[in-house]
Amino acid sequence: MTTSLCNFLYTGSIVWLFAYSCIVLVSVVGNTLTILAILTSRKLKTLLSNRFVLSLAISDLLVGCSIPYHMLPHYWPGMNTNKTTCLLRFTLIAFACCSSVINLLVVAADRYVAIVHPLHYSKYMTKRTSTFFIIYVWTSALGVGTALLYWNYWELNGNKCDISLAPQEYLNYLLAPLFFVIWITMLIFYIKIVKEAKGQAKRLKNAVSVTSLPGMCESSKSLQMVFLILGCFTVTWFPYFLCITIITTYGNVCVLFYEISFSMAVGNSAMNPLIYAWKNNGYRRAFLRLLSCRAPDNRRTDYITNHEPGNAHARGFDHSYNNGIAEEIGRSEATAQPCSEIDAESEHTAVSELSATGTLGSEKAEKEVDTEIV
Length: 374
Description:
Structural class: mainly alpha
Radius of gyration: 23 Å
Helix content: over 70%
Shape: globular
Membrane topology: Multi-pass membrane protein
CATH class: Mainly Alpha
Family: Belongs to the G-protein coupled receptor 1 family.
Subcellular location: Cell membrane
Order of helices and strands: HHHHHHHHHHHHHHHH
Distance between the termini: 72 Å
GO molecular function: G protein-coupled receptor activity
Protein name: G-protein coupled receptors family 1 profile domain-containing protein
Number of domains: 1
């Protein structure tokens, strides 16, 4: 019975072939749609935040494309005996996964600045700084991923093509710290985002009656995005790095546990389009347009705020894609009415107007903000 189960669940079995095929399909389709949505829509391209989402989608697409090559040696054993093909098997997936994880951190940092320091967002997050961050992400991922090409135990490992060819120092002092530093930093960012959102809720309560706003949701509904972002990253990546820690500590680990943890880690790239893009009304409409083969609607209006880009009010809130978390949490804390289906554009317009009046408090402050943005 045990032997039959092991044969059924061994790495090259039909079970893993089906599982990885599903991950590849969802990852490639979802991230390709995200990339096309941003590149073909002027409304989405004008938002600076979407440059980071685009970079994340490209890295996740690379993860999906590198999985088949990573699995190929299980069905073509000859690749295991060649050093170059074996090292490329781990290098490509390491490069793609590292770029995805670091991109997640950059997206979190962008949202942190946009929500916690909104008045300084246009000062800190410019096209130049965003380009710098994106270049940094890909350069760092390239350095981590390609390290195995010249730093490996191929000969000492008896020409065995598995994770044991990676030096323990590489796993202990490079990959593991990378995960934990990024996880802790993201945790700090999102804790501060939630605190800021609750503060915004109190300001909204004192400034204006928001019970007339449609679509007020309970706190659990509003915190959904925050929990999804950090929760999915933790659930999908933590088992893999726990497995890596066991390997470096005891020198071995259950093959089945390693494959399960690895499939969960790469599966995060299939979830990211759902979390970062598909939860946004603007992206959903762009996806529907692409799937129905309709021409893009490139009228010169901000997709989120429904204002013209030249308007100072719109410029001050053109990062409202990032402010969506704070707006949702703020609205939910202000009232406990249940959720209802409403028009997304009117909701964002109303919230933008409330934020402009409730947080600034006077016409004088409003003029100061406009001056700073210009």
